[in-house]
Batch of 2 targets.
Target 1
Amino acid sequence: MKAIILSAGRGSRLLPLTETRPKCLLPVGGTTVLGRQLDTLEAAGVAEAVVVTGFMTALVEEEVAARNGPMRVTPFFNPFFQIADNLASCWMARAHMNGDFLLINGDTLFEAALLRDVLASPAQPIQVTIDRKAAYDDDDMKVTLDGARLTAIGKTLYHADAESIGMLRFMGEGPALYREKLEQMMRTGDGVSSWFLKAIDAIASTTGKVAAFSIEGRRWNELDTVEDFNALNAHFRDA
């Protein structure tokens, strides 16, 4: 299994913390956001990781080069990170989507047990990892479900059954389905400015081949704001 991590962004909502480093290199619990992601993936037996970089790519490349574990980690620079959103990052990295893989947001942190659950779950062409809570806000990546099948995903959905945590798994025909949809969407007027999950929404609505997998009860965090950063480090100090 391969992992592709989308870490090209600066994290402007985390300023001034991201004045001199990208979001993925912010310190968390004795390492960095990216370091913790890679450590967890490596411990779970993931053989290879591709890190899509952008803002201050040299710093990320240095972090990757300093690793000496068994997992092969390759940086992949997106030179258009300032003008393109992460659907374009996925499109540029599509050559790495040539087999089963995980696609992970660069600001999603997850415990090892959560990752093991995802890796051990039944094979599906495309699987979106979800969690549930009492209410959802405008910033949540909301999903609607028909049983275990995902029917729609997006921040502007009126109704929500759950939220995406920013970890997807592609198996079997899933990688080809996603690559094909990326190619189609990058030929449209808003492809460059689209979020990568817009392609998942389109596949879900036309093929029905997107499943949802719940990790309710497992720990994960999304790092978007300075408040998120402070809460996350407080957790590791208290752990």
Target 2
Amino acid sequence: MNLKVEILAQAKKLSPYLEELYHHFHANPELSSKEINTANKIVEELEKIGGYHIEKNVGGHGIIATLDGAGKGPMVALRADMDALAIEEQTGLEHASTNKGVMHACGHDAHMAIALGSARLLAECKPYLEGSVRIIFQPAEEFVPLGGAKQMIEEGALDGVDAIFGLHVFPDPHLGVGTFGFRAGELMAASDRIEIEIIGKSAHAAQPNQGVDALVAGSQFITMIQSIISRNVDPLESAVLTFGSFQCGKQYNIVPEQCIIEGTCRTYNPKIRDLMELRIENVLSGVCSATGTKYKFKYHRGYPALINSPDMTAYAKNVAKSLFGDIKVYDIPKPSMTAEDFAVYLKSVPGTFFFLGCVSNADAKPLHNSGFKLNEDTLWRGVAMFAELATNFHKIV
């Protein structure tokens, strides 16, 4: 039997099952660390499939499902995230969210369907599996800066694992439906969250000399902070500093005593990460000293940079080519400043994270958009890819 041909055929036959799962997860989204019903559904499906050692409530609502093959060999991990976003869905789909204000707008519903389809297909391939497969269903991927990966690892998710693979559906018309995007080395940035409180003294707007204006201090900080990227960071390094929330004052005729500023910093180089934290507080301290205000500063280090193993990326790329041909493989030309806590797994074991094209129309909505929807023909292709990665891994170890 040609196992590759069989995997492709069986993955495609799973399409109705995959679409049913996808519709269920999409219609019943749950926020980070609240994936109770989602986890129950995953366990229910795994128990129907049979053959897996199932561990529940790992790192919160996470699930680990391990399948031992007929022969001895390495253990491969496949990861799918579970959580949804606080977005009111506007897709008009029949299987749209039934949970008001919550939506699977980042494709995690598809990831779970693909992982369960892979679990089903790999169970059928057990006689040909040399080694073990561990499928990790991870909660709280969107819960920046903590994320669910770290806690799952602490509770044993990677024990005995030799390599890990993850995918993300991606609505990029350059990829097209079923095209896999790969990049060795740097793929996604480290993501940190910044919380600042500037404290002044309120006063009547007609007598500002009797107060200490937190709004003026906050405004000066935002203006001055822009020079960090242009004057302190090496131009050949990647860094992004964005403040997306500035809350100050409640009434037009009162000098505000408090200014709350929140933002994010994205980097790749750990030294640049350290520099950004240091310089942000330096500027904040200087502004507050000059304006007579005080401050509180919190710099939450979130996900590390996602650095793909060159060897594992080459392996995954070759698997995709062998399944779907060169035309369905795309070399991602440059890294992104977005973030993913799959990076945490890659700090412990080699692996790679890749993208799977899920739209064909140029006006497709992006991830984290209330109108995001994917082409469901994407799903079986992800299953075939995961299954082939797992069944062939012993050949390269």
